From TrEMBL:
The keyword Cytoplasm applies. The RecF protein is involved in DNA metabolism; it is required for DNA replication and normal SOS inducibility. RecF binds preferentially to single-stranded, linear DNA. It also seems to bind ATP. This is DNA replication and repair protein RecF. It is found in: Cytoplasm. It comes from the Bacteria. Gene3D superfamilies: P-loop containing nucleotide triphosphate hydrolases, RecF/RecN/SMC, N-terminal domain. Keywords: ATP-binding, Cytoplasm, DNA damage, DNA repair, DNA replication, DNA-binding, Nucleotide-binding, SOS response. Residues 3-337 form the RecF/RecN/SMC N-terminal domain. InterPro entries: DNA-binding_RecF (IPR001238), DNA-binding_RecF_CS (IPR018078), P-loop_NTPase (IPR027417), RecF/RecN/SMC_N (IPR003395), RecF_2 (IPR042174). ATP binds at G30, D31, N32, G33, S34, G35, K36, T37.
Length: 363
């Protein structure tokens, strides 16, 4: 039961909303422009201090206000007491994150609230750039291995340093070799964790996809970002002239990708739009299922307008998966009837209606 109570202030048209969500399924319905996505952004803001729709805080903060705030009572582990969590961000750049009366770092916050977003952009996972699929992989690695965040930060620092040396055009070979050694050490460790994660994810993905989309053989293949037939230090050495010309590093985990193949072909080219959505759905659901197995606690799914993304039959199947793992879900829709009659009688479902940024219980 991750979020027990929620208080959102000054997020887009949501001036001041309080809700006590269900630990399981929350359905938020309302007309277009009523504030459904804004409420989901509020929850995302609580977990990551930013929106999933914009990178600019000024768009998220309600017009005329100078800050947005979200408070909650959050239960990090089943059986543990709920503790207060508050996130505030001001237009002047100040960010405050407090948990149980103490300031905490962003990585601790992200660990506390494992969020999965599913909106129309998510369905572009297969067609989009590799960076989107790296984010997908790294969400899973971050939540399954505590050492990953340090490796990731260390690697980013070394990559930035190496690239800025490349941009200068002339590098002292001794200095470069030192940076390359560090680069390779981080790269190997990060890649091992990413690879292990994808191996763990595969059975969950296959089981989920088998139920959502039968008859198509879809295969996940992790691509580390360089050709592993050659040691990475050798590739860096051999690619130096090209790297210097480009001004950035060509081989390494910064180029990693998740290749998705359907019937032996690139799934983004091969599958229909609807089939691709089901593959992405299976990937996102599998991540939640694996997270649960590894951490013994559920994720929070923020799902924006599911009925407009999936047809009725697959929308139902998708919801059944959500119901089977004990995730806390916030699902928005325009017509609440689209999500009626899906849930088991014992499932705790709360329904809310949003009107011009104001929330009411719809039960
Ligand atoms: N920074 C802002 N301040 C005030 N209102 C905003 C801001 N940004 C967007 N809005 C308004 O918030 C409303 C709710 O948007 P949204 O949550 O996307 O609606 P829904 O998802 O229900 O269709 C929209 O009418 C939009 O014009
Ligand atoms: Mg919306």
């Amino acid at each position: 039961m991750p979020i027990k109570s929620l208080h959102i202030q000054h997020i887009r048209n949501v001036a001041d909303v309080r809700l006590d969500p269900s630990p399981r399924i929350n359905i938020i319905h309302g007309d277009n422009g009523s504030g459904k996505t804004s409420l989901l952004e509020g929850i995302h803001f609580l977990g990551l201090t930013r929106s999933f729709r914009t990178t600019q805080i000024r768009h998220l903060v309600q017009s005329g206000q100078d800050a947005c705030l979200v408070f909650a009572q959050v239960q990090a582990l089943p059986g543990a007491p709920a503790l207060p969590l508050g996130v505030e961000r001001r237009l002047d750049g100040e960010v405050r994150v407090r948990h149980a009366g103490q300031s905490i770092e962003l990585s601790e916050l992200a660990q506390l609230l494992p969020l999965q977003v599913i909106d129309s952009d998510t369905f572009l996972l297969l067609e989009g750039s590799p960076s989107i699929r790296r984010q997908f992989i790294d969400w899973g690695v971050f939540h399954s291995d505590r050492s990953f965040i340090q490796l990731w930060r260390g690697f980013r620092r070394v990559l930035k340093q190496r690239n800025s040396l490349l941009k200068c055009g002339k590098i002292d070979p001794r200095l470069r070799r030192i940076w390359d050694q560090e680069f390779v050490a981080y790269a190997e460790q990060m890649t091992q964790l990413r690879e292990q994660y994808i191996e763990l994810l595969k059975p969950d993905f296959e089981a989920t996809l088998g139920r959502l989309l039968g008859g198509v053989a879809v295969e996940l293949r992790f691509s580390p970002g360089w050709d592993r037939k050659t040691p990475l230090d050798q590739l860096l050495e051999e690619g130096l002239a090209r790297d210097l010309k480009q001004g950035f590093t060509g081989a390494g985990p910064q180029r990693a990708d998740l290749r998705v193949r359907a019937d032996g072909h690139n799934a983004a080219e091969r599958l229909s739009r609807g089939q691709k959505k089901l593959v992405v759905s299976a990937l996102k659901l599998a991540q939640g299922a694996l997270f649960y197995r590894l951490n013994n606690r559920p994720c929070i799914y923020l799902i924006d307008d599911l009925p407009s993304e999936l047809d009725e039959q697959h929308c139902r199947l998708f919801c059944q998966f959500l119901e089977e793992t004990s995730n806390q879900c916030f699902i928005t829709c325009v017509d609440p009837a689209a999500l009626d009659g899906i849930w088991l009688p014992q499932t705790d479902v709360s329904r809310f209606r949003v009107d011009a940024g104001k929330l009411s219980h719809a039960d």
